[in-house]
Design a protein that fits this description.
The protein is of the alpha+beta class and 534 residues long. It has 19 helices and 17 strands. The protein has a seven-stranded mixed sheet. A two-stranded parallel sheet has the order 1-4. Helix 1 runs antiparallel to helix 2 and helix 2 packs across helix 7. The longest helix is centred in the last third of the chain and has 17 residues. It is globular and about 100 Å long. The termini are far apart.
Length: 534
Amino acid sequence: MTIDKSWTTIRRRGSSNEFWNGLQHFLQMATAFVNDRGFIKCSCRRCLNNASHQLEDLESHIFRNGFMFGYNQWIHHGEPTTANAGANAGTTVAGPSGGIHERDEMFDVLDDIISEDADEDAVGGPSSNDQYDDLFAALRSELYPGVSSFSSLNFLVKLMHLKVLNKWTNKSFDELLKLLKLAFPKIDLVESHYEAKKLMTKMGLGYSSIHVCKNDCALFWKENSLKDTCPVCSESQWKLQSGKRSGKNVPHKVLRYFPVGPRLKRLFATSKTAKLMRWHSTGKSKDNDVMRHPVDGKSWKEFDKRHPQFTGDIRNVRLGLAADGFNPFGNMSLSYSMWPVVLTTYNLPPWICMKAEYLMLSLLIPGPQSPGKDMDVFLRPLIDELKELWVHGLDTRDAASENGVFRMCTVLLWTVNDFPTRSSLSGWSGQGYRACPTCNEDTPSMRVIGKTAYFGHRRFLPTNHHWRSNLQFDGHTERKRPPRKFSTTDILEQLRRVKTGIPGKHPNYGGVKRKRGDDELNWRKKIIFYELPY
């Protein structure tokens, strides 16, 4: 009897029924060779039969890492020796159609999630990360005895999805889990929302909680991660009761940071979205006079001219950033401002890139006050990652390419915001006599009944326009030319004269109002975006 082993060379394991069926047949053969402690040699490309695991771990290892090369006769897993096998030659045994249980749809989801580990031969070696073992255990587990087509993981993912769609509270979710446990005592399900969330985090796309100084002076992150007090104002990062730290450390503020790289890699993990990520090059308008996507604009084309190495691979990602404040409590009598920072991917076509499911939340800045001039403090994790994605890139599996893995680089093209938010993101104050960021130091303004008014709009008209000579506007003829355009060199020269301020809102440090000099114009600071090398 000849055993069909062609499944061991399949690369796209998650989307192949042949690999799954062959793996189940291999496990059935190996069951008889488990030792008295329940262990058996692992034939994945990482263990190479040198390490032993339990049978359920053997399945997840081979599925994630692939079957080892050169192991053609399964002498450690139940295959007869060559001499014994010759008597039964001539029959091919394919893997069974069922297996331990019917193939669950979550296998395809996990294949997308661990695609970087699954394609280790393209990246340069298998991963040694066992973070997915719990997911495979939940995927192997039947939801209820006798229900072979619905795994515990599949049910939990769908239940969490319903929670989000219908805005269930964590408490109501816990009560539902208790009810299910009471009604179905043998159901294999987590005990609480905390446990469910902990398991879902292993599927990727989680976030990092970064503590923030109560005065917005600094993040307790990287070089400050081990400090208990702010390096600027010396305030404690923990809430104190009667001048003492409570039994449990509770930070004053927490910044939620959602890493960008893993989310961008997920867009290339399936062939459908991977093809859409090329639309900006393959589907853009051929008419130079039509603009239906940012790729048709001058800024995009100018960037392409300046950075031909980046544009050489159409899969490199271009992002836009938007930020604004909102009151999360829906109570206008309560003053609270929380600021989400959202990224959109402009590689996608225009009818997709602005849909909610393709917008990426990167930062959730806590209140109760708006970040204001301290926006740079909160943007630090995002800017550091964007610099890394520009300089070094990220090895990414492209499901729509035969080459498999490429080095994905990323660029932030611009920001999208209202005028007040622009002050926080650009560093140019939107108040005072020089509030206009376009006119810059040439902004025409005057004081009218306690308020600043801006005039001179007719100078944007053509020089021969009849409204320029109309006296009904302000009683004068407009002869001024449109405001001059400031070059990058001009702006950088202005920023060179701006003094570096102290971050934060502490009344003795960053909260002290500083009078700007005339040479600083309306600049409050040189914003953190200037650290980006492009």
